[in-house]
Design a protein that fits this description.
By secondary structure, the chain is α+β, with helices and mostly antiparallel strands. The protein has 3 domains: about 180 residues, no CATH class; about 50 residues, no CATH class; about 40 residues, no CATH class. Helix content is about 40%, strand content about 20%. The protein contains 12 helices and 12 strands. The strands form 3 sheets. Strands 3-2-1-4-5-10-7-6 form an 8-stranded mixed β-sheet, sandwiched between helices. The chain has a two-stranded antiparallel ribbon with strand order 8-9. Strand 2 and strand 3 form a beta hairpin.
Length: about 375
Amino acid sequence: MRYAERTVYRLLPKLLEYQKEIETAAIQTARDVLQETFSLVLYDVTTLYFESFKEYDFQKPGFSKDNKPQQPQIVIGLITTRLGFPVMHEVFEGNTFEGKTMLDIVHRLQERVGNSKPVIVADAGMLSKANMQQLEADGYSYIVGARLASTASSFIDTIHKELPRTDQASRRFSYSNAVKNASIICEFSEARYKKDKREFDKQIKRALQLLERNESGRRAKFVKKSGEKDKPFIFDNALQAKAEKLLGIKGYVTNIPELELSSADVVAYYRDLWHVEQAFRMSKSDLKARPIFHYTQEAIRAHILVCFMALMMGKYLEIKTGRSLRQIRDELWQVQEANIHDERTGEVHAVRMNTSKLANSTLIQLLNPEFPH
């Protein structure tokens, strides 16, 4: 058994020689079976941590999405179709800023899918002036989440005045002073407002409690330095007013003109990012992508490639059957067969489950078209 394990670990990196073929197969499956045209793709990143506190040349501590800031990690970028079917991935060092992961993998996808350039949908972590300018220069359309809190106070005042506070109300504002041809679409949501308001009130309460104890707190919002010895920290009224004006509002940055794509469609496309997030959750939980025990870069990349293939198969089954991976697993476990060996005669008798209940199963017919009806 130990020899077999050593052989697997020794041969695992050789799988990397087939990464291009595997991703080509994913793209072809998306086109031929799932009728994907690649007019729009989703991009996001996640992190995977290691069961170690020792840093190597590739796995390094960084901003952890797994809430493991002390442990080394890697960063993974994933491109999926609008339905969440994975077609391409890349692995980066653990301290890589997620905003620097997108352009290379987008260009690599473009080489595989041909002349048509898809709309790139990504979350706010990808939002940087350099990224948007480069996408624009390369002829791509994009939809990314906006970091409204980081915009100028004058712009926030404009949003506050012009955006109605009615559920699903939206307005499009020019963002061309930051990036050519860009607009910010702002949408108000009653549900988001209630959630934001609860968090807003909690942060204010915490800030006031810290100030009573004359403490700054770690990463405490609405507390700032005063520059005075007697009272080193004060409440940040300007930040409070700024944050209050944005309660319930979400922003989306795009370079697609409204005549080509309505604001409602921009928001709808962005919301499809949950498919990538769900794919990452599936990889981490159902497919057991973490924790990782490898330490060489080649072995790590091969491990992620195996997880990518498993994700391809899992998402394919989900899309084709309309069921979750866990429901699929539970149904497959119902397919059982027992072999009984008769020691007296030496005969082996196969005892199969009653398959009549599964005869019309979409999943069973998908996996085995010859399954008896």
